[in-house]
Design brief:
Elements lengths: L3 E2 L6 H16 L7 E6 L1 H10 L8 H15 L7 E4 L4 E6 L4 H20 L1 H10 L3 H19 L1 H13 L18 E3 L8 H7 L13 E3 L10 H8 L5 H22 L1 H18 L5 H14 L15 H15 L2 H10 L2 H8 L2 H6 L4 E6 L5 E7 L2 H9 L10 E6 L5 E5 L1 H4 L5 H15 L3 E6 L5 E4 L9
Helix pairs in contact: 1-4, 2-3, 4-5, 4-11, 4-12, 5-10, 6-7, 6-10, 7-10, 7-19, 9-10, 11-12, 11-13, 15-17
């Protein structure tokens, strides 16, 4: 455990408990980089949760998210106990006015996250590429963007951020972060041998043998469908300035960093919840009342529903992940559980380890929407078919939860032709919203942009940006 900052503590007790909880965690085989805990005001915590980082590039969309989070918080629909950023060291923020039992639980919870992020292969691969000091790196990027605002004006910088943040889900994490440009040429395919009349004609007297074609020819751009839109735009936009390319690549790098958090949410939150419960249960140095109050907080965190309603269609990832890890640790050895933590993400975790018995115990089901009286939608329980249930749980995680868009072709005049992978997506696009995003793209691409897709009814559409001044 590294530093504990913030107001003086009845929290002296927390400073005493923390290293002892860490010792318990290591005794159980958990391994993690040091954790730098910081106690912060709840307002600061909410800003970190909304912006994603303590210091981040300025943009109006974060303000919209902040207002939503603030309203939810004021209405009692959400409480943020901690925010942790994986790295070396891990950076963890705790709310300074939380009660001692809450922050004691959070300390144990964060150690579970720290173990997961160090040892899970997806987390490790992304951090090896992005680096282990995201908080400092994000602050440095924010400084560069502030310098760009001072040099080029807020309006121009905001236009680039509009495009970059609209496309932050459109990265390809199967490609390396620092990937080279496409090859400029490819080897020309050999012509098939002449046959029949053509072969006879080529052998007539006086016919000169044609010059052999060049061995190489210009490569198509892209050579195959390109799903990393931020990378492609930064590398191949015909008129983009270097500072604009830098902003696109900065947003792309942060998307790489956050992808494992998104793709392992159920596993990661469940793992941290399992360990905070187990470590507190075994922490015989905790006063009885601190333990009881911490376990009450645990019950609130891992309740079945993600909202206050007692009937909810939103699955709480803490609850589902905690239940799955409890079952796994009951049925498997610790070594097997550690291997699952290392090798899986939410896709394989749900598909491999959520069985029918557990789904029934957790009252998970498939539902369908139907129109009801007054235009309101009704939700009807359809079945508990386990394969469909698993796919319904992981489907929102596909491609960062956004539509799967790719570059089809870069035209000779610089036209950017985009396609929509409808088959993988399984859905059409919101046409008005898509046109708005195309507007953002065209402002920084500065050449024509079009997108082939389908609408919600499945009808083919070719979309182009709205004319400037139109409402979308």
């Amino acid at each position: 455990m590294e530093h504990v900052h913030g107001p003086e503590m009845s929290n002296e007790q927390l400073a005493d408990y923390a290293p002892r909880i860490e010792g318990l965690a290591r005794d159980h085989g958990l391994s993690f980089y040091p954790v730098d805990f910081e106690l912060v005001p709840s307002q600061f915590m909410m800003e970190v949760a909304v912006y994603g980082l303590p210091v981040r590039m300025p943009h109006w969309s974060f303000g919209v998210r902040y207002i939503y989070q603030y309203v939810q918080h004021r209405m009692g629909h959400s409480k943020i106990f901690e925010v942790v950023f994986p790295g070396n060291p891990n950076r963890a923020y705790l709310v300074d006015d939380n009660a001692l039992p809450e922050n004691t639980l959070v300390t144990a919870h964060v150690l579970g996250h720290a173990d997961f992020s160090r040892n899970n292969q997806l987390f490790a691969r992304m951090q090896d590429q992005v680096g282990y000091h995201i908080v400092e790196q994000a602050a440095e990027r924010a400084n560069r963007i502030q310098a760009a605002i001072e040099s080029h004006g807020e309006r121009r910088v905001e236009a680039v951020l509009d495009a970059a943040l609209a496309l932050e889900a459109n990265v390809d994490i199967n490609q390396p972060l620092n990937r080279p440009n496409y090859p400029e040429t490819v080897e020309r395919q050999e012509r098939a041998p002449l046959e029949g009349f053509q072969r006879y004609y080529s052998q007539l007297p006086g016919e000169e043998a044609p010059e052999p074609p060049p061995r190489h020819q210009a490569a198509a751009i892209p050579p195959a469908p390109e799903y990393d839109l931020l990378w492609f735009m930064a590398r191949y936009a015909p008129e983009m300035e270097d500072w604009e390319r830098d902003i696109l690549l900065a947003v792309r790098e942060e998307s790489f960093y956050f992808y494992p958090v998104f793709a392992c949410q159920i596993m990661n939150e469940g793992w941290a919840s399992y360990w905070h419960a187990r470590l507190l249960r075994e922490a015989d140095f905790l006063p009885h009342q601190v333990y009881l109050d911490a376990i009450k907080t645990h019950s609130d965190v891992v309740r079945p529903y993600a909202g206050d309603d007692q009937v909810s269609l939103r699955v709480n990832p803490y609850h589902l992940g905690f239940a799955m890890w409890e079952r796994i640790l009951k049925d498997c050895s610790m070594d097997e559980a550690l291997a699952i933590r290392r090798d899986e993400d939410d896709f394989s975790f749900i598909r491999n380890y959520l069985d029918e018995d557990l789904a029934r115990e957790l009252q998970l089901f498939n539902f369908t929407r139907r129109p009801g009286a007054g235009g309101e939608e009704r939700y009807i329980v359809r079945d508990r078919e386990i394969d469909l249930l698993r796919e319904n749980l992981v489907a929102p995680k596909f491609n960062y939860g956004g539509p799967r868009i790719y570059v089809r072709k870069l035209g000779h005049d610089g036209t950017l032709e985009l396609g929509h992978d409808v088959e993988s997506d399984g859905r059409g696009l919101d046409i008005n919203r898509s046109r708005k995003v195309l507007n953002y793209i065209q402002r920084v691409w500065r050449r024509p942009v079009k997108l082939e897709t389908v609408d919600h009814a499945g009808d083919p559409k070719v979309l182009e940006p709205e004319a400037e001044g139109e409402d979308g």
